[in-house]
Specification:
The chain has 215 residues and is mainly α. It has one domain (4-214). The protein has helices spanning 10-32, 35-42, 48-60, 62-90, 97-107, 112-125, 131-136, 153-161, 164-181, 185-214. Helix 8 (153-161) runs antiparallel to helix 10 (185-214). It is globular, with a radius of gyration of 20 Å. The N and C termini lie far apart (49 Å).
Length: 215
């Protein structure tokens, strides 16, 4: 079965991805991560004047976050595509890097869903929250099965990564590559796990190392 999204213009899809990310970021800044939430977290450490000055500076340079979003996407997608492309080469599959990159681009939209659900959860179901609770909440992840306040800080991120959307992302990558390679799904899935899976494990190991070093 053809992976229909592969026929889409990648540039248009990339623009759509960035615009959705912009919208989610704006929603978060406007309605959730307000000055009062930051003040609850840092107000005791700073004078009111200093805090207001920092918030003013943050709003002044907020546009930089939007400006670098496309670059961050390109960087992440490039790394994912490189991991997959390398694994495919070792498995002796004939495929172009541009094709692998487009599959990674299409699958990336999956991660818009948990970002939206996080905002929806705190906007509708948990209106009273802290900055730490927002940062540690990942919908449908293993982290939700534990009280994160009782966990070691370095354990939180790995538990957040173990979520349904990460699993769906891996299956979407395999499904997209299967449509290009015309191979059995299980065969392509094993290549995705050896490429992207290994890259993800190395990334998580690096984050854990940095968290332990900085604690």
């Amino acid at each position: 079965m053809k992976f229909l999204f592969l026929s889409f213009d990648g540039r248009v899809y990339f623009l759509f991805l960035c615009l959705c990310s912009f919208a989610l970021s704006y929603w978060a800044q406007a309605f959730l991560l307000t000055d009062s939430i930051y003040y609850q977290s840092f107000g005791e450490q700073l004078s009111l004047q200093r805090f207001e000055a920092l918030m003013e500076q943050s709003r002044k340079w907020q546009w930089i976050g939007y400006a670098i979003t496309p670059l961050l996407y390109l960087f992440k997608l490039g790394l994912v595509a490189l991991c997959l492309f390398t694994a495919l080469l070792f498995a002796e599959y004939e495929v172009r890097f541009a094709q692998v990159f487009k599959v990674a681009l299409i699958a990336e939209a999956i991660f818009l869903v948990p970002a939206f659900l996080r905002l929806l959860w705190f906007a509708e179901f948990q209106p009273s929250f802290s900055l730490e609770e927002v940062s540690q909440f990942m919908p449908l992840s293993m982290a939700n099965l534990f009280d994160t306040a009782t966990l070691e800080k370095w354990l939180i991120y790995p538990l957040q990564i173990l979520n349904l959307f990460e699993l769906l992302y891996i299956f979407f990558l395999a499904y997209g590559l299967r449509s290009i390679l015309a191979k059995a799904f299980s065969e392509v899935l094993s290549v995705v796990l050896s490429g992207y899976g290994l890259g993800l494990l190395l990334w998580v190991a690096l984050v854990i190392f940095l968290n332990i070093s900085l604690l």
